[in-house]
Each structure stands twice: as C-alpha cells, then as structure tokens.
Amino acid sequence: MQVTSTYKYARISAFKAREVTREIQGHSASEALDLLTFSPKKAALLVKKTLKSAIANAENNAELRVDTLLVKEAVVGEGPTFKRFRARARGSASPLRKRTSHIRIVLTDEFVPEAPIKRAKKRQTGRTGAAGQTVRAKRDSGQAPVTGQASSEKSAPTKIDEPTGSSEPTSETTPTAEKE
Q1: 6, pLDDT greater than 90
Q2: Domain assignment of residue 64, given as a range
C-alpha cells in the first residue's frame, strides 16, 4: 500500500530541494530520517518534516508498520515564484525571484527492488580514420593519420636497414635514417 504526504509552497527553490530528495529515494523510512537528520542543508529540514508526516499517515490512516516502510519516491516540483524588486542606484530596480516548491513523498510497504539503470557507454569523441583508429591514437604512435584513403593502399614505411636502390630519400624515410 502507498501513502503520500505533500508539503506545498515550501520556501526553497526546487533545484536545491531535489538535491536532498535524491539521497533518500529507495531507502527505508528510518534510514532516510537518519540521513536527513545529519544533512546540513535547509532543504533537509523541510523534507524531514514531510517524511515524518508521511510516516504518521502510514501509521494512523493506513495502519502500516513503520519498520517495513520504504521511500518509493521523493519528488520536488516547482511552485509559484514571488516576484519582488530591489531598489538600485539612480532610481532603477532589479528583480528578485523568491521561488517556492512542492515536496511530495510516497512511502510503500511493498519491497520492489529496482534493477540499476544501465546507461550506454559514451562513444569515443576523437575523429576516426578509415581503419577505425582514432587520429589521436595514430598521432601518439607516430603514424600519420589516414585521411580519405583505405588503409590497404597505404604502404608501410620502409625499413632503415634495407637499401632502396636509389640514393634519393623516399618520402617515407626519415632524414635521420640517412645519417646512420
């Protein structure tokens, strides 16, 4: 059975309160209370108040045992924003936005272990050549990157020890190889 509790028009921005509610989702009600008790954030007090209300609703209205309760969801939605102005220099004004939020906590006594969300691996962000190697990997290994040609058309650099038959250096040999 599910039990909910809602704290409407809490005087905190939803962005700040969501940081706290993410921490308690999936925990038991007693663990969540412990986490909120030792959290230094203002939102922790407001979420703790809502969680205590949800626990009281579960005990009194639904007649559930406290030790079996889990925090199924803890959601923070944006409430109305109070718009005010602050006087500034030379008769101007700057806006102030006093944000509010609605905190909703859902407790359940049914144990439903959720599988962890598997996220796709990020693709490598480097450019790839025709052979599939990244340009960065080829640059680090000392090879020239492949640009537009198939890797089978490129010939491997000639070995330094083998004479090529001409005294002119080829484009694939390095100038330091001739000095040896």
Answers
A1: yes
A2: 2-108
